[in-house]
Amino acid sequence: MKLISCIIRPYKLDEVRDALTTAGVSGITVSEVRGFGRQKGHTELYRGAEYVVDFLPKLKLEVVVADDLLEAVLEAVQQSARTGNVGDGKIFVTTVDQAIRIRTGELDADAL
């Protein structure tokens, strides 16, 4: 099993969710996060005053999938989240040793 963590632009959530559902994902976790990468933030004007926005709003999606779904899910996220501009985000893949469904006690792939 693999944990896929994706940092994406907030307005891309619906497209990514639809692509993940089509790829066979049954559930995702979404968190609102803030951060910066190569963009290093940007300058905005508010009521005549200029200020720097260091941390940009992003969404973090987390999904655990069986190994055989990994490539399809990665492709789905890349295609649906890409705009071609700086700040599209990142995808991280981590190995998951064990998963347990709390309600039933099911383990690993059965718990997904």
Brief synopsis:
With 112 residues, this protein is of the alpha+beta class. The chain is built from 2 helices and 6 strands.
Written account of the structure:
The structure is a single chain. The protein is an alpha+beta fold. It has one domain: Alpha-Beta Plaits (2-Layer Sandwich). Helices cover 20% and strands 36% of the residues. The chain has 2 helices and 6 strands; from the N terminus they run βαββββαβ. The chain has helices at 13-22, 70-81; strands at 2-8, 29-35, 42-46, 49-53, 56-65, 90-95. Strands 2-5-1-6 form a 4-stranded antiparallel sheet, with helices on one face. Helix 1 (13-22) packs antiparallel against helix 2 (70-81). The protein is elongated.
- N→C terminal distance: 10 Å
Indicate the CATH class: Alpha Beta
Element-by-element helix/strand order = EHEEEEHE
Report the sheet with the most strands, covering strand number, pairing sense and barrel closure: 4 strands, antiparallel
Mean pLDDT: 90
> Helix/strand-derived class?
alpha+beta
* Count of the domains: 1
CATH fold description: Alpha-Beta Plaits
Q: How big is the Rg?
A: 17 Å
What is the CATH architecture term? 2-Layer Sandwich
Beta-strand level of the residues, as a percent range?
Answer: 35-45%
Spatial order of the strands in the main sheet?
2-5-1-6
Q: List unreliable stretches of 5+ residues.
A: none
Count the E strands.
6
Please give the share of residues in helix.
10-25%
Using the alpha-carbon principal axes, give the shape. Answer: elongated
Count of DSSP-assigned helices: 2
